[in-house]
Design a protein that fits this description.
Strand order of the largest sheet: 1-2
Order of helices and strands: HEEHHHHHHHHHHHHHHH
Shape: globular
Strand content: under 5%
Helix content: 55-70%
Oligomer: single chain
Length: 510
């Protein structure tokens, strides 16, 4: 497209009816036999935690042009209020409040629940209980901020819905003029933090699977004639490589969906058996630390936020609701779902630490009896489930990366995509082999990535959105002070959590 053509296109005022309404992009993808491709439908539940926008068009620029392809919104505040984004959403399969609640629970309840007993070990029994609900409340509030700000930006941009990264871009684009130039950077930062977070989770999964399998195998082979010595867990990780490559060369979610269903069944069954062990021979509360000390709190923060933070699943779910106003209402779908999630995580953390004390491992399954068949079955079931989850977790960062670089490869796109997939798998495996300490690794991923995604970015987005609006920051600028606290809390958790986790990794502590 020539610059002259772009100039003419930007100069001619277009009526609102000329703009094509953006199509909603639901979170879940499935195979469409008529189109011989992928269609989106939220009803097919797949364990994809974060949304990928397959048709991403930059707001400010495209193909190197310096002219905006979308008009920067003005300051017609009354006109913004007249636009109702919910009335313009055209959903093929809108979800009810109950459906959305189920999907929210599914997206928020992940492998992090198995690490909550270790989080309580680093906080103390009672302090961990209070702090878990406190962090859960802060995370939920930040989700409220993000959703409310997204609704406001939908009105300004005259769009029916926005994703997480799109909300950040729109906030800077419609905020103070000085912030416009940072709109694409804001969107890119969120996408890349999602990539780092999810690839970090893939590394954690490799460590998790290897340690659980090693415990089961060691029970039968250690000190035997053909395996007299302890086999390093890194060997088990290396053995996983061909299986990981085989699974992750699958590019269509249609073929990954059955593995998601199997993983759900295995995790559900494994958790039931785990609770059976947790409630047997429970020691007295007085035998456990009520407060573990200030030095271990950063590790608790990183682990807890890794387990609790499900902000990436929120916007796709809200965008697909039949009645989106019910999402952040009172009690609302979000409040109900997060209360259940936080309560369940606190329950597992409390009784897991109460049962195993200072001997608690990075995954509670590692504490289950090694010489009992039932305990071994749990370890294997959870290991298989997390192995399948790796493929579903890997799908999203791969899509984000590939979407941004596929134009570079011309006719060799298939070969390039498969090569990049294999390279990313090898990188995640290499990181896992280099850092085989499950507990500090989980805390590091939570502290580095989710402090930004779950706490800092929502606060910054709200501040920029309302910065130059009349009374946008509230009386005495309380919104600004509140968001400064959230940003400071996130940065403090990021710095201290990352520092302590890295020290534990260097020391080789589990």
């Amino acid at each position: 497209m020539s610059k002259k053509h772009l100039h003419n296109q930007a100069a001619i005022p277009l009526a609102p009816a000329v703009f094509k309404k953006p199509q909603l992009r639901p979170m879940i993808a499935e195979y469409d036999p008529k189109k011989k491709g992928v269609k989106n439908d939220l009803s097919d539940v797949v364990m994809v935690k974060y949304k990928v926008d397959p048709n991403d068009i930059p707001v400010e620029q495209q193909a190197g042009s310096t002219l905006p392809l979308m008009e920067i919104p003005g300051r017609d505040i009354e006109g913004d209020e007249d636009f109702n984004p919910f009335e313009h959403r055209k959903l093929a399969h809108p979800t009810s409040d109950m459906d959305t609640l189920i999907h929210l629970l599914k997206g928020s309840l992940g492998s992090g629940i198995l690490a909550m007993p270790m989080a309580f070990m680093n906080a103390g029994l009672y302090f961990g209980l209070v702090a878990t609900f406190l962090i859960g409340g802060i995370c939920t509030y930040c989700v409220h901020i993000l959703v409310k700000t997204s609704h406001e930006l939908c009105k300004r941009m005259q769009k029916p819905s926005l994703g997480f990264a799109e909300t950040a871009e729109a906030a800077f684009l419609s905020g103070p003029p000085a912030a416009h130039k940072f709109s694409r950077l804001a969107k890119a930062m969120i996408n890349w933090f999602l990539v780092i977070d999810l690839l970090g989770c893939c590394c954690v999964y490799i460590v998790f699977v290897s340690k659980n399998i090693k415990q089961v195998v060691d029970n039968y082979t250690l000190d035997s004639e053909w395996a007299p010595h302890d086999v390093d867990v890194r060997i088990y990780m290396a053995v996983l490589l061909p299986f990981l490559i085989s699974m992750n060369l699958i590019r269509n979610l249609k073929y990954l969906a059955p593995f998601s269903m199997i993983a759900n069944l295995l995790v559900g069954t494994g958790m039931v058996i785990t609770f059976y062990y947790l409630f047997q021979d429970i020691p007295a509360i007085s035998e456990r630390k009520q407060f573990a000390g200030v030095a271990r709190l950063p590790t608790f923060f990183g682990t807890a936020i890794f387990a609790l933070e499900g902000i990436g699943v929120v916007m796709p779910l809200e965008n697909n609701m039949k009645t989106p106003t019910h999402f952040i209402g009172c009690p609302g779908v979000l409040n109900t779902g997060m209360f259940f999630v936080v309560s369940l995580y606190a329950l597992v953390g409390f009784f897991g630490y109460l049962k195993y004390g200072d001997g608690t491992y990075g995954s509670i399954t590692l504490n289950l009896p090694q010489d009992e068949v039932l305990g071994q079955c749990v370890k294997l079931m959870i290991a298989v489930a997390i192995f399948f989850t790796y493929s579903l977790q890997f799908y999203v960062p791969m899509e984000i990366i590939w979407k941004n670089i596929r134009h570079r490869f011309g006719a060799k796109k298939n070969l390039a995509e498969y090569s990049i997939r294999i390279a990313l798998i090898i990188i995640t495996l290499g990181i896992a082999i280099a850092i085989p300490n499950l507990g500090p690794f989980i805390s590091l991923v939570g502290a580095v990535c989710l402090s930004f995604l779950g706490l800092i970015f929502p606060a910054v987005i709200e501040t920029v959105t309302y910065w130059d609006r009349p009374n946008g920051l509230g009386r005495l600028n309380w919104v600004l002070w509140k968001n400064m606290f959230l940003v400071s809390f996130g940065i403090l958790g990021f710095l201290t959590g990352a520092y302590v986790s890295i020290l534990d990794i260097i020391k080789g502590e589990e």
